[in-house]
Amino acid sequence: MKLRADQTGDRGLPMPLWLQGAIETAQAAVISALAVLVPIIAVWATAGFQDSGFETLARLAGQSWLLVHGVPLELAAAGSTAASHTGSGLLTLVPLGLTLIPFLLAWRAGRRLARASYTDQLWQALLGSWVVYAAFGVATGFVCRTPDVGINLGYAMVVPLIPFALGMVIGARREAGSWSRLIGVDAVDWISRTSQHSRWAGSYLASVAKAGFVAVAAALALAAVLLAVDLFVHWNLVLAVYEALDAGAAGGAALTVAQLGYLPNLVVFALAWTSGSGFAMGVGSQVGPLGTAVGPLPSIPVLAAIPAGALDYAFVALIVPVIAGVLAGWWFLREGENHFDEWLAIKVRARWFTATASTLVLGVLAGVAAGLLAMGLAWLARGSAGIGRLTDIGPDPLWTGVWLAAEVGAGVVIGYAAGPWLERERSVAEDDSELVH
């Protein structure tokens, strides 16, 4: 692969690839730091901080930058020190919405570096960029440590590389057009040298994994709609908290930006709520469609929209993952190839048995795929605020995955079994439309 002036028309930068990678990374680090600094400056401009010194603001911005990248911060309680670990807690609740900023900047940098590299040279640009970003992270952690906020320098060096490296690799893949052009390995040629049974098995499992992804994506979309409806219904309570805080225009805007940063987390919380497993808002609390029990919550406007009181019909929300599974089963019927059903039909002549068995196996495998993906999302979205009871916030990854796997699996069985009827109704509707025209 060579993505230089002869292919794109761009002249590019006449410099070594490792240096170009370092410059691209420095730009991304500075821009993401400025994005974090803007709301802090807005609060400072309205006298929102007791200590308004420049050094305090700079350290707060650096700590926020590290948190956005997923670095845990150790908060020391009053009368304790971060070094003694007495009365302290970890702040690990990452605003996933703000994490998209460095991810997208890395995606852009990855595309630019792939455009300037041969296949066997891309590692130079990536290595240079990752070394600079790791150095930026460890320097930020070293400078921004305080007696009240402890930062592990190892985490500060390694953890920010995860979203950044992921975005850079995806961006480079997007520019190259294929993994073979990106890393020089032709996956199609490798697969063609395997046996037919291996190719069928691989194709089947890949389609099942995609069906699980479709189910989780659909469930997240439906959960986001329910979250929007819930915010609309409880909007008066949200406004009441804003008015009680009386943070002013700049402070209210900064608070809104922070809440928008946690919007992806809230969508995952809503997904866990619809699955029935629910989520925690503090140690010993539980928020779910089958019951809600929470203690005192901080004065954050969005938390006023948490469903409480008598929820007589909330159990209806459990149908959301099932509907997502139905869509995934229908998708598999249209896009995938059920090679397991074909293999089973060759071995066993009783069609009623092979159709039932293959459909149930499909539901189990797709449910497991969806459950594992939901487990990962729940793990990313949950965390600790490091203060008092709020050391347990978010869904339990294991139970979220188990509930969602069972519901999606049932939906996939229904969707795949009803798929032929849905396809027939769709084709009849298209024929009627053609006759009208």
UniProtKB/TrEMBL annotation:
Pfam family example for this protein?
DUF6350
Q: What domain of life? A: Bacteria
**Is the Isomerase keyword given for this protein?**
no
Question: TM segments?
Answer: 21-45, 90-110, 122-143, 149-172, 203-229, 249-275, 287-307, 313-333, 353-381, 401-419
> Does the entry feature the keyword S-adenosyl-L-methionine, yes or no?
no
Entry keyword set: Membrane, Transmembrane, Transmembrane helix
* InterPro entries in the cross-refs: DUF6350
Q: What is this protein called?
A: Integral membrane protein
Organism, by scientific name, is: Pseudarthrobacter chlorophenolicus (strain ATCC 700700 / DSM 12829 / CIP 107037 / JCM 12360 / KCTC 9906 / NCIMB 13794 / A6)
